[in-house]
């Protein structure tokens, strides 16, 4: 397989003609994206569950569990942006399972033997996931609006908040892809996915750090998800978590810096791991 892959990679330029390498990569990535999107039609239950689960979480925290410790003002206005942020971490198990299943069935090895850009498989997977994440985010915003949540700033601020949420998702996605290839087997994905829960709840999504012990509050404030949640609340014009720490007062900066740093680390790690799979 390694020899075949090496030969086919060397002949990529011949197979694609005289077009630029960037156009080859884009065309191959779009082909892989369409492959991933086509799975939606064959797995509608998984898609529906992925959309319904965060909605159930939002309704549960809003009407059943309650909360809002340390929150000044309407808890629902505080909660919805926090749940939108948490949603960006949910559903990574589907992406991770897809990657490990392709690895287990040898699908990725077959793709690697073809005259195509070596990173197109990962890019296609990530683009398809981002499309699904955008749909899920739209559903969550609609449900939030239906239960009474409102944003109070202009449309540009609204788009900025959505952009920060999707940036966080993109960073989480590459962490998931890398960990999936490290795990290698679908059975190990659940163990990795469990880590999402403490990271998600160890944030200011549903409670203010000021209501926590000082040491725990400091950890929560520096959580990348807390930065995004605080920045998004500000852009939406919703109540914030309070606090005068550097992390709290520079939330928008951290909401960009954290995801960019995570992408800078895990994107090359994922690509390197992918290239090393058949060596």
Poorly predicted runs are 1-18
The radius of gyration computed from the alpha-carbon positions, rounded to a whole number of angstroms, is 20 Å
User: What's the helix-strand series?
Assistant: HHHHHHHHHHHHHHH
Helix content: over 70%
Secondary structure class reads mainly alpha
- Number of separate helices: 15
Q: β content, as a range?
A: under 5%
Give the termini separation: 9 Å
| Average pLDDT score | 79
- Shape verdict: globular
What profile does the largest beta sheet have?
A: none
Total strand count, please?
Answer: 0
Write out key terms for the chains shown.
mainly alpha, disordered N terminus
Describe the secondary-structure layout.
Blueprint: H1 2-10, H2 12-16, H3 21-42, H4 44-65, H5 75-87, H6 92-105, H7 107-112, H8 120-146, H9 155-183, H10 186-193, H11 196-201, H12 214-221, H13 224-236, H14 246-249, H15 251-276
Can you offer a commentary on this structure?
- The chain is mostly helical and 279 residues long.
- 76% of the residues lie in helices and 0% in strands.
- The chain contains 15 helices and no strands.
- It is globular and about 60 Å long.
- Residues 1-18 have low confidence and may be disordered.
Task: Summarize it.
The chain has 279 residues and is mostly helical. The protein contains 15 helices and no strands.
């Amino acid at each position: 397989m390694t020899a075949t892959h090496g030969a086919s990679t060397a002949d990529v330029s011949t197979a694609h003609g005289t077009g630029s390498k960037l156009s080859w990569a884009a065309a191959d990535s779009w082909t892989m994206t369409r492959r991933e999107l086509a799975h939606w039609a064959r797995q509608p239950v998984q898609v529906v569950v992925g959309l319904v689960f965060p909605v159930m979480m939002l309704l549960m925290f809003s009407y059943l569990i309650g909360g809002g410790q340390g929150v000044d003002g309407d808890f629902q206005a505080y909660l919805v942006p926090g749940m939108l942020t948490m949603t960006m971490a949910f559903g990574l198990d589907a992406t991770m399972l897809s990657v490990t299943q392709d690895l287990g069935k040898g699908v990725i090895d077959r793709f690697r033997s073809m005259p195509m850009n070596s990173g197109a498989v990962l890019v296609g997977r990530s683009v398809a996931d981002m499309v699904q994440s955008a749909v899920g985010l739209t559903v969550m915003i609609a449900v939030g609006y239906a239960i009474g949540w409102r944003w109070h700033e202009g449309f540009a601020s609204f788009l900025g908040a959505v952009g920060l949420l999707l940036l966080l998702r993109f960073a989480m996605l590459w962490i998931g892809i890398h960990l999936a290839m490290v795990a290698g087997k679908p059975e190990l994905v659940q163990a990795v996915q469990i880590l999402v829960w403490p990271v998600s709840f160890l944030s200011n999504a549903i409670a203010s750090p000021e209501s926590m012990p000082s040491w725990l509050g400091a950890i929560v404030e520096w959580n990348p998800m807390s930065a995004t949640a605080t920045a998004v609340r500000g852009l939406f014009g919703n109540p914030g978590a309070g606090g005068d720490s550097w992390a709290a007062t520079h939330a928008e900066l951290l909401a960009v810096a954290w995801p960019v740093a995570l992408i800078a680390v895990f994107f090359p790690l994922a690509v390197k791991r992918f290239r090393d799979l058949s060596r």
